[in-house]
UniProtKB/TrEMBL annotation:
Protein name (Swiss-Prot/TrEMBL): Protein N-terminal asparagine amidohydrolase-like
Range of residues in the leader sequence: none
InterPro entries, per the entry: NTAN1
One GO cellular component, as annotated: nucleus
GO molecular function per UniProt: protein-N-terminal asparagine amidohydrolase activity
Species assigned in the record: Eublepharis macularius (Leopard gecko)
Protein's GO biological process: ubiquitin-dependent protein catabolic process
Matching PANTHER family: N-TERMINAL ASPARAGINE AMIDOHYDROLASE, PROTEIN N-TERMINAL ASPARAGINE AMIDOHYDROLASE
Amino acid sequence: MPLRVNGERIDPSRPARELLRLCPELEERAKLLRSQPARTVGPRGLLYVQQREFAATTPKDGSISVLGSDDATTCHLVVLRHTGSGAICLMHCDGSDTEKEVLLITNAVRALSPNTEYGRLEVHLIGGFNDDRHLSQQLTHQLLRAFDRLQDDIHLVTFCVTELNDRQEKGNHFPYIYGIAANVKTGEIFHAFFPDKGPEEDLRSASILTGAQMVNIYDSRKEQLCIGPYFWMPFPPANFWLDQDDQYLLQNLSTSPRAEPPHFISHIRATLLCLKEHPFPDQTLFSSRKPWIYVKNEDGLWEKISDQI
């Protein structure tokens, strides 16, 4: 079934500027989102989603009140919500396998919306900018095509991507919005920043750096965050990269060196160190072959309860 705006089918192959001419309300919503100052979202009640991760839940969740993700430069943040059940999913995608990833999150929201006789599926796309390699533009088109090919009608509500999320400063391009949050209870989408990106931020990033695919990190029925198990081969280049200066890392390990947030270098060094210290994570971290399980404690913070289900 087609991708729609205000009930009308749109052609995802058209350039974004033409799409906005036909659907000016999309540009107005993007302007409104860009005009918001970023809200700082703390760890209480937060489920933070890293690159190549997604998480889905419903308003009945007693542990999670906010889904969030940031540090997106050329990546896109995708929120899919069923207005009838309130089931909501947030994905941080980088174009590694977009069509498959869109199907994954759609199935996740469907599974949390059984026997729902009313409502519709609404999608919000945020992220990217006018980067030199046109990676953002490619990912925008991939996402539009993937949603247009689904069996369900998908209603595009927010379209703040690529040129609509681009700002210039001293001749260089940057995203307006690096991060968003989604209120699980109301479905509100807002500009956000997350000082706490855990748990196990570096470990999760190490898995991505070694080529992991998109993964669902949350079991909403049990209200549990599941990390791993991770398996990767030794990563000899870690020593080489750790010996390089910050500028070299920035130029060679980022898709958009001029647009990265200030903490990019410290984060990538911590990730490389994790790879160096755990060349065989299946032996040193996940010998049980089971994921690490986290739940929210009474203070709304993550607490590890087991390395087994």
